[in-house]
């Protein structure tokens, strides 16, 4: 029984260390820059018009320390104490009405997330995924 308890504690500790290493490697500045929206990963059950969702593909999303700017939208100021970057369980962060599953939205089970106060933006490798206009979009970095 002691061995089992020790094994469980070690697994939890290793998992916590791994999560903290991911957070240490990803900071808010890793999200900053100009991103081009490349595609729609998933559409929600309750969506805006297809035309409005598709209009976002090919546009630019700019993230700075003080605001998030989507093409054609008013800038969304980042209010302090935001931005907050943390590694999250995407199943908890992606509402079922927003996407059938995190995987359908293009997200792994755990991912770094920038909570800007107006959008939750996930970092997945060299691109970002964010939810807006009734869909989850993928964007590639255009400029740092």
Order of helices and strands: HEHEEEEHEEEE
Helix content: 10-25%
| Parts with pLDDT < 50 across at least 5 consecutive residues | 1-24
Q: Taking strands numbered 1, 2, ... along the chain, how are they ordered across the largest sheet? A: 4-3-2-1-9-8-7-6-5
Largest sheet: 9 strands, antiparallel
Mean pLDDT: 78
Number of alpha- plus pi-helical segments: 3
End-to-end C-alpha gap = 53 Å
Principal-axes shape call: globular
Assess the beta-strand content as a share of residues. Answer: 35-45%
| Total number of beta strands | 9
What is the rounded Rg? Answer: 17 Å
Structural class: alpha+beta
Indicate the topology.
Elements: H1 2-25, E1 33-43, H2 50-56, E2 60-63, E3 67-70, E4 76-77, E5 84-89, H3 90-93, E6 110-115, E7 120-124, E8 127-132, E9 135-143
Description:
A hairpin with a 4-residue loop joins strand 6 (110-115) and strand 7 (120-124). With 144 residues, this protein is α+β, with helices and mostly antiparallel strands. It has helices at 2-25, 50-56, 90-93; strands spanning 33-43, 60-63, 67-70, 76-77, 84-89, 110-115, 120-124, 127-132, 135-143. The model is unreliable at 1-24 (pLDDT under 50). Helix content is 24%, strand content 37%. The chain has a nine-stranded antiparallel sheet. The radius of gyration is 17 Å and the shape is globular.
């Amino acid at each position: 029984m002691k061995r089992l308890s020790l094994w469980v504690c070690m697994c939890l500790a290793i998992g916590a260390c791994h999560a903290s290493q991911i957070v240490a490697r990803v900071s808010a500045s890793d999200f900053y820059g100009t991103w081009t929206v490349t595609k729609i990963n998933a559409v929600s059950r309750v969506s805006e018009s297809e035309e409005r969702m598709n209009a976002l593909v090919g546009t630019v999303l700019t993230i700075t320390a003080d605001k998030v700017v989507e093409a054609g939208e008013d800038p969304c100021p980042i209010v302090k104490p935001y931005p907050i970057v943390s590694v999250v369980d995407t199943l908890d962060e992606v509402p079922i009405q927003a996407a059938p599953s995190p995987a359908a939205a293009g997200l792994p089970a755990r991912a770094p997330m920038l909570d800007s106060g107006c959008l939750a933006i996930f970092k997945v490798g060299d691109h970002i995924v964010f939810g807006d206009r009734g869909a989850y979009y993928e964007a590639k970095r255009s400029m740092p």
